[in-house]
Amino acid sequence: MDLITLLYKTILFRPYVFAFLAAFLFAAIKLIGWPRTWRFWLISWATAFVCEFSSTRSGIPFGWYHYNGSTVGQELYFFDVPFMDSISFSFLLYAAYCVALCFILPIGSSAASTWPILKPLHLDMNARTSWPVLLLTAFLFAFIDMVIDPVALRGDRWFLGKIYYYPDPGLHFGVPFANYVGWAVVGLISLAIYFPLERRLPALSLPPSVTPQLLLGVGLYYGVLAFNLSMTFWIGESFMGMSGLLMHLPVIALLLFRLTRPHSAALSG
Asked: CB burial class (10 A; 0-12, 13-18, 19+) of residue 66?
């Protein structure tokens, strides 16, 4: 079966993945433009693919796991890695990056905001390619997988299907802790490659506040989170779903505190 046909079948088989991918492309182009977007996507996808290829053969960096090939012929694989799986890393990393930027970027003057309720964030070059952003993004990237991987492991109970397994199941709902370390490693490597390129590209023409553009990426992060929590509750894993929800609520509360102004300040602004 030729590559184009398999790619077409993959899109039909995994429309939700490609909807998230389209949302990523739209959000990223709005914030950082196409030249940076395609580099971000290519670097993160290639890094994820190499790490998945390595892990299924050596256990590094995710720990040992195996794709069972149950959907071969239904969707595109590169070697033994489903294409849809490795591209998911790209939009999830960008979404985590946007959440991290919301915490780290400097707040501009109140006059810079056209949305009175939101604090105006400035996309400062030094801040957006800083060590705090890199480390926080890697954490948030692995943190959302603590909701995604447990329900994906139970894919035979929803429309994902049983596509992989861990030979030595871990304590976190069957997922080994090494898997989350691997996600953080993918995030760190991807951004460590991307940030130097980001600094060398022509400067962006930016509005005084990029908070609305950042919220597109933040919406993607929490859209993916909501999708996976919905699947978790749908298959009857209430404890697992509540665990994931309670893990993320403090981050959501801190994010709202960072981004929104007090009511009185918003009215006066």
From this structure: middle
Q: Write the CA distances from 228 to 2, 154, 176, 178, 215, integer angstroms.
A: 32, 11, 19, 21, 20
Contacts of 176 (CB under 8 A, 6+ apart): 63, 166, 168, 169, 170
CA distance 201 to 126: 14
- 86 vs 83: CA distance, rounded Å: 6
pLDDT digits (tens, 9 = 90+) for 172-181: 999 999 999 9
Bridge partners (DSSP) listed for residue 164: 67
Q: How far is residue 234's CA from residue 226's CA, in Å, rounded to a whole number?
A: 12
Q: Alpha-carbon distance 146 to 107, whole Å?
A: 30
- Nearest alpha carbon to residue 254 among 139, 127, 110, 93: 139
For residue 47 the two structure tokens come to 């890094």
Structure tokens at 33: 């433009």
Model-level pTM greater than 0.70? yes
DSSP letter string, 107-134: B--GGG-SSTTBPPBP--HHHHTSHHHH
Q: Low-confidence residues of the chain, pLDDT below 50?
A: 264, 266-267
Q: Say how far apart CA 249 and CA 227 lie, in whole Å.
A: 16
Non-local CB neighbours of 248 within 8 Å, separated by 6+ positions: 143, 144, 147, 225
Amino acid at 60: I
